[in-house]
Design brief:
There is one protein chain. The protein is of the alpha/beta class. It is 41% helix and 17% strand. The protein contains 9 helices and 7 strands. Strands 1, 2, 3, 4, 5, 6 and 7 form a 7-stranded mixed beta sheet that branches. The longest helix has 24 residues. The termini are far apart.
Length: 254
């Protein structure tokens, strides 16, 4: 069973931007459950992304036992903060490793008594081990990579935090394929060097004949194109060693 990342929306606003940011543009916005293939420089994992409204959690029908990441998307009203607290009480026993509370913006310069200040929201986050993400925050650099070591800000931080998690089913990306390719290249270079040494400069027929077995072994271990080129060189060297010009085989016999 793959782990879950659950996004819970406490607002009437659409989260299509978040869904597209995580899954890419080619995703159906009509579905609420998606397979997310997480791929980073270091690992890959299969994760189920589920988009929920906070009302979906209130009736206790949602199971969070396999949930490893929770993203709360909220406005800054005090009523929403109360709903957040209620929903979190239903989830916290599952102990998701990644907990993000996302708002568009927060401020301590509150004009409306119904609004929670940034300090109040941050206090709740700290008390419940959530990270506060403010979408209007900007990054200090122009890089779009979420895999670099510098912590991102704003919306980019959501994806960076999710990819930084060690998902329970992750598979480390093995660089052995690159090493194997390099080993093949090294072997090919070694064989070509050895072949060049055998052919040398104007080897005698006896010298070539004594190396036939070795030349055959080299040829068998070369890639197809190099094998053909090597066979032509051997043939030309043979012709030359017995005093036949390379173009003589095209002349008619008399």
């Amino acid at each position: 069973m793959p782990p879950y990342c659950k996004v819970i929306n406490f607002t009437p606003s659409s989260l299509s931007w978040l869904q597209e940011m995580i899954l890419g543009d080619k995703t159906s916005l009509d579905n609420t459950t998606h397979q997310w293939k997480v791929v980073t420089k270091y690992y890959k994992a299969e994760v189920v992304l589920k988009m929920l409204q906070h009302q979906d959690v209130m009736d206790d029908s949602e199971d969070f036992s396999d949930t490893e990441a929770i993203v709360f998307y909220c406005d800054t009203s005090k009523d929403t903060l109360k709903n957040v607290e209620t929903v979190w009480l239903k989830i916290k026993e599952s102990s998701p490793a990644v907990c993000l509370l996302v708002v568009e913006t927060a401020t301590d310069d509150v004009k409306d008594k119904k609004e929670a200040s940034r300090t109040q929201i941050l206090d709740w986050c700290l008390s419940n081990q959530f990270e506060l993400v403010e979408c209007n925050e900007e990054n200090d650099d122009d890089s779009d990579s979420e895999e670099q070591f510098d912590e991102k800000a704003g919306r980019q931080r959501i994806l960076q935090a999710l990819k930084a998690h060690t998902w329970s089913n992750l598979e480390l990306i093995d660089d052995s394929e690159d090493k194997d390719e390099q080993a093949d290249e090294d072997q090919k270079s070694s064989l070509l060097m050895e072949a060049k040494e055998i052919l040398g400069e104007d080897p005698s027929f006896e010298e070539l004949f004594s190396q036939i077995s070795k030349m055959k072994d080299i040829s068998n271990n070369l890639p197809n194109e190099e094998r053909k080129a090597y066979a032509e060189k051997v043939a030309l060297a043979m012709y030359k060693s017995i005093g036949v010009d390379s173009d003589d085989d095209d002349q008619p016999l008399t």
